[in-house]
Amino acid sequence: MGLINGLQVGFKQVYAGQPDQDIAALLHGIPRGQLLKVVSGLLAEQVKSINDVKELIDFWFRDDNLGFASDAYTRLKPIEDEFKNLSLAGAPAALKLYSYALNHLAEEKLLSDVQIEVNLFKAFLVQNDLLNLTDDKVTETTENLEFTLRWYGLHFAQSVRFSDVVNFDLYELFISEFIRSVLLFEFLESGPETQALLKEFYKIYEVESWDQYLQQLSGVSLSILNKTNKGFLELIIPQGENFEREVKFLDKLSSIEYDELTDNDFKALREKPLQKIGEGSYRIIYGLFCIERVFKGLYFNLKAVNQSLPNSAKVKDLRNLYTYKFSEQFALYYVLNKALPKKYLRITGEEISSAGYQGGPDFYIRNNNKAFIFESKDSLINAAIKETGNFTALLEDLKSKFYIDKTSPKAVMQLLNCIIDMYKERFLTIDPSYKKEFIRIYPIVVIHDRQLDVPGFNNILNYWFIPELQKVSNIVDISKVKPITVVDTTTVILIHELLNSRQIMLEDAIDEYHEFVKFKKQYKSYDELMQHGHDTTLPFSFFIKQIVRTRKLKRYPEKMLKEKAFVGLGE
User: Mean of the pLDDT values across residues 136-144?
Assistant: First the structure.
């Protein structure tokens, strides 16, 4: 069990002792269109890591480059023998080079195809060197920490930068994106304050309804999911009565030149993941970014539309409406209620607050003596900090959003305060039937973006939570309180029908997960220690996927997809 990873092999490692190379010089003379096409093909194939160096060399070079290829193989082979898993043209490096080419290269061809292969190979290695500089910063800012926090910090800081662009299942992600986008539109339709926003949104995208908008956008996503050919994917709009409308729609998703030096986290490519190559012809830059436009990109579309409205028609605090009223209330309540068997007691945060209980959880579930308390957090790491690899800055950002800030407790302390109240029986005003002598408590943090669904994050929250819990052991029976479990919205959506049918028992899955991520007392070998050491940092989402696959359960919520009138996906 684990995530996709691999040594980002760099130029200094492969060509040790040779003069440094410069990306601008290496790419000068390569036509922009040709390089964009090649890199799009690499991204389409998701060449993140190739376990066999010979396969990599054969993939990259033509016969005319046999001499250079043979030398490259000789240099790479010892590195492969030492590190096993190499990454040359990983998604982060490919996206960085794509951004550079889009903004700096001309169409003039000054190099032969043979030389272009060599220069592009070296450019990827140099780009990997640049990416590896951030890993050095991770090491530097964690080296003086005590072992446990250092272990979790290393995994978190190294993963949070790019995990969301290399660790994903397109099929599962699209289902989640589609369902969440439908829920968002249903939410916006239900509120009088968002009617002007919706009306202007339809006007700008030249659609009559959100159904039509999603149908057009989902068409792009389905072409990616159903792709059978190797290499890049192009979309060709056939001539017909809808040609002009469809072209205008896709033009809004097509890349433009921008300053990649100030563009953190590939924001520009995420926003415009298509390259227009002709009238009615488009190339997909990265399939992941297209699929994330279905929901993740929707907020930014709505934000831009909202800013264009006159003040009298604007949604006053769109961010709060989206993160709190939609994500933390409407969507979370909807999916959790769908997930629960009928006999479970369920109380929403809104109901808890209305009953006069202050600082309560965002959702509360009890099944006999098992209580699940949820804190929902639609928070993101600052993109500029995320790319630095500075764990000190990352930890401070996490603390202020998930532990405690200068003015108020956050998720970790909010959960602890609720647990204390349950043992002091203050929570009996909300749930009068639980017995503190027998209750087993499962604290859960729900996150709404994949950015934080990475190794080490759950561990860091428990690094804060468990010592705080131990401080109140005179009040709380801490043997009956589980560590915090971080659950992302995509996982809740994908497995909620399995929870409802009790094919997966949430308490069992959480118990098994925390047992799995514990360090063992003994290991048979150093290799086993290191492998399981990495596994101890895995997020709950990856553990639950393993359960679903091992038991051969449904990968998607069939009933909800039918309810939302979606067709087009096979199993």
Answer: 93
427-457 core/surface letters (b: 16 or more CB in 10 A; e: else) = beebbeebeeeebbbbbbbbbbbbbbbbbbb
Contact between 24 and 219 (Cβ < 8 Å): no
Q: What is the pTM of this model?
A: 0.91
Tell me the C-alpha distance between 392 and 388, whole Å: 10
122, with CB counted inside 10 A (0-12, 13-18, 19+), is buried
Chain segment 351-387, per-residue pLDDT in tens: 999 999 988 999 999 999 999 999 999 988 888 888 8
Query: Which residue from 522, 364, 455, 516 is spatially nearest to 155, judged by alpha carbons?
Result: 455
Look at the block and give the residue holding tokens 């099929």: 171
Q: What are the beta bridge partners of residue 447?
A: 377, 488
CA distance 395 to 153: 8
**426 vs 167, which has greater pLDDT?**
426
The DSSP call for residue 30 is S
First vs last Cα of the chain: how many Å apart?
Answer: 23
Q: Which two tokens stand for residue 344?
A: 């479970």
Closest CA to 312 of 193, 191, 189: 193
Phi and psi, residue 423, nearest 5°? -80, -25
Q: Which residues contact 105 (CB under 8 A, 6 or more apart)?
A: 27, 28, 30, 31, 32, 35
Tokens 């990259």 found at = 60
CB 311 within 8 A of CB 317: no
Q: Helices marked H in 267-390 — which ranges?
A: 267-271, 287-292, 298-308, 318-320, 332-339, 349-354, 383-386
pLDDT of residue 258: 58
Question: Which amino acid would we find at residue 88?
Answer: L
The rounded distance, in Å, linking the Cα atoms of 432 and 409 is 26
Cα–Cα distance for residue pair 62/117, rounded to 1 Å: 8
**What's the farthest any 2 CA atoms get from each other in the chain?**
79
Of 442, 443, 388, the closest CA to residue 412 belongs to 443
For residue 367, give the H/E element and its range.
strand 363-367
Closest CA to 49 of 120, 103, 124: 124
Handedness of CA 222, 224, 229, 233 (dihedral sign): positive
Q: How far is CA 424 from the centre of its chain?
A: 38
**Could you write out the DSSP letters of every residue in 432-499?**
TT--TTT-EEEEEEEESSGGG-STTHHHHHHHHHHHHHHHTTTTS-GGGBPPPEEEEHHHHHHHHHHH
Nearest in space to 539 (alpha carbons), one of 465, 448, 472, 450: 450
Pairing of strands 440-447, 370-377: parallel
